[in-house]
Amino acid sequence: MIGELGQFALLLALAAALAQGLLPLWGAQVRNERWIALARPLAVVGFALVSLAFASLVTSFIKVDTSVAYVAANAAHELPLGYRITATWGGHEGSLLLWVWILSAWSAAVAARSRSLPHAFAARVQGVLGLIAAGFLAFIAFTSNPFERLLPAPPDGRDLNPLLQDPGMAAHPPLLYLGYVGFAVGFAFAVAALLEDELDARWTRWARPWVLAAWTALTAGILLGSFWAYYELGWGGFWFWDAVENAAFMPWLLGTALIHSLAVAEKRPGFLRWSLLLSLLSFSLSLLGTFLVRSGVVSSVHAFASDPARGLFILALLGVSVGGSLALFAWRAPQAPPAEGYALGSRESLLLLNNLLLATATGTVLLGTLYPLAAEVVSGTKLSVGAPYFDTVFPPIMLPLVALMVIGPLARWRGALPAALAAVRPLLPLAATALASAVVLAFALQGSLWLVAGVATGLWALGGTLALVWQQRGAWRQSLPLWLAHAGIAVFVLGVTLVHSLERSHDLSLAPGEQVQVAGGLLRFEQIEAVEGANYRAARARLVWQRGGEPVVLQPEKRVYTRRQMALTEAAIDRSPWRDVYASLGDADADGHWALRVQVKPFMAWVWIGALFMVAGGMWGVLARRRRWIEQPLQDASASPTNPAVLVPDLLTP
């Protein structure tokens, strides 16, 4: 009965989404106030119906209703309750329903917070969001029904994929989707602006808080996914340049450019076209990621099973959304106010350079992600573009961008190169110190040129941000988001550079009672024991590593999940601010020797600290503002000479 309730709610939600997508758009076109007024209630009704469908699916998982095929494939009675709930989005059908539920939540939130916007404009925004929701609800209803019955029902389910039986499953996919789908709001604002009779930049002010919220959620989702991969997969890395990882990273890169562009577009017409295009492309790349995950065209730990019908459906949605929006942009963008020329060294020119570098970085990731697919389609040859390509082409683009983070906030609006050089001159000792420190470190550790470049850039960016903090300390409430985000990027660059350059890995074969020298310390394999979990059996090793000071105890496991008979490595990690000791347990041979991998990763914590600073900066920009961003009177916002940028009012707003 619960499954039928969810199915009925899903079909009603599809009808509501179609009405939300068509009636307000047509009403805005013909200036019919009654149809325009339907936009907000339809968004709320759609959210309620999708929530009912989602709650029905969660209930089916909690009860382990194996008469629902999707539940039978992803749950079991022995699965702990928490993992039964997260199993709701552990497969294709449920994760897609989560995707649409989050989209409907964004739509309802925009409806609640946009009462002071021009009614026709708000109706167009809701209409675009409704059409997107209708497309994905139709996709669920016709190709990916999570409520499809399995009769007769089996006595128990197949269990959740052991890789997904982790607390990270509770937060990583929802946050990632919150960011992915959140860019649909910026997309809808941009399309609504392009449909207006007069194309101006007012929409950028209204869209800013939504885009920043989506960017913050996506940053947190990527951070959690990387952290989860680091401790769960057992190979010791946190980023593999996997096609699906890249699909989340590309919207983040363009979203970063979009945040900066939206902050100045209202006062600088040259950024209006940039803001429109970046809004369209950020969500388009989110749709591309959805296609890569669900079409089966890539092999990935993140991808779902291949289904040609699903792939074609999503490809059609992608083509209509991207093709239609870009065609609209090509038609209307020439009618935008003409762009101004900006002198070299002005803050405007540096923001444009920021956009160009981020767009170029996105292009390199897109090329590396799609080239193997294109090569296979054209020639039938299977190719792999992995870390060596990205590690070669990505740093030369991003390191100059990180270095510019210090110069940009110091440059003047409508300034010139001499003024920018004068502003930077007091920081030359900092630049010299950063470079000298990096050279000394690389020489002492026999590091590479990339170690010098990464450490010098990170120290320069961190020191420059701290100098900016001191200079702008009187406006800390407004400037804190920029300080946190930029300091986070600097710390992240330092962490990634040092880990990549200095980590050491040791592959060993030891029996209990044996010991060996590892990374300047003594590693002793004390024992191996059998343990029983709720739905798995495991062999747990006890390792003790000592290099002066207190000994480090590590207990990695090799698990076998009983329902699926799937083996999984559970790594053991000893963390400190200066290094991680990482151990993973492999298989035993006939002589009782166990395969072990022990890695020492200097400054690994800095990677997570830097990313957390970025998330904190975004959260401060979203939550700390007491004024109601969307609700503030339009005449006040347009008349204010210091209309605040969402990210950093004093530093980004002309």
Task: Explain what the structure shows.
This protein is α+β, with helices and mostly antiparallel strands and 654 residues long. Among the domains are: 160 residues, no CATH class; 101 residues, no CATH class. 62% of the residues lie in helices and 11% in strands. The chain has 22 helices and ten strands. Strands 2, 3, 4, 5, 6 and 7 form a six-stranded antiparallel sheet that branches. A four-stranded antiparallel sheet has the order 1-10-9-8, covered by helices on one side. Helix 19 runs antiparallel to helix 20. 49% of the residues are buried.
Q: Give Rg in angstroms.
A: 26 Å
Counting DSSP E segments of at least 2 residues, the number of strands comes to 10
Figure out the total of helices: 22
> How does the overall form come out from the CA principal axes?
flat
Termini Cα gap: 59 Å
Relative helix content:
55-70%
- Strand proportion: 5-15%
Keywords:
alpha+beta; 654 residues; four-stranded antiparallel beta sheet; single chain
Summarize the structure.
This protein is of the alpha+beta class and 654 residues long. Among the domains are: 1-160, no CATH class; 504-604, no CATH class. It is 62% helix and 11% strand.
